[in-house]
Design a protein that fits this description.
alpha/beta, binds iron/sulfur cluster
Amino acid sequence: MHRQGKVVFLSHCILNQNSVVKPLARAKGAYNKVAEEIIKRDIGIYQIMCPENKYLGLNRLPQTKEEYDNKDYRNICRDIAYEVVDDIEKYINNSNKVLGIIGISNSPTCSYNENKGILFEEIFYLLNERSISIPVLNIPTNYIEEKENKEFIDKLIGFLNNKETLYR
Ligand code: SF4
């Protein structure tokens, strides 16, 4: 079977809402609508490790970026970022197309907003250093699995079809 050679990098909790701070879960398991759009296009999925879970575990309470931003947490995020960016580079150097990274809007760790989350700061710092441009998309704060989420799903389809891209 020939591989299509397309891969998308996802924040961990897009596929596993059991990893988020308890009251903040927005799906029973995965964001199925997001996963379905990716899977039906035969795009490979790379699940980035959840740094908050690694640092504080599953019973953690919500924290701000400022509360997370200490040396230990930076180091965890930096280590994960090195692994992720090394892997992005490997895929690109082996003729795969990395469609982009999907993060979580307003997350203190995984957002790509004006004020990036800590992991995404580290990832995009390294990508920049290596002159790699990667499209990026955020799951919006109003995404809830039970809802239709049409506006976002249309945006996601554009992103996966590589039409609507925001290169960073
Ligand atoms: S740290 Fe990232 S992957 Fe983990 S729960 Fe928060 S947004 Fe999701």
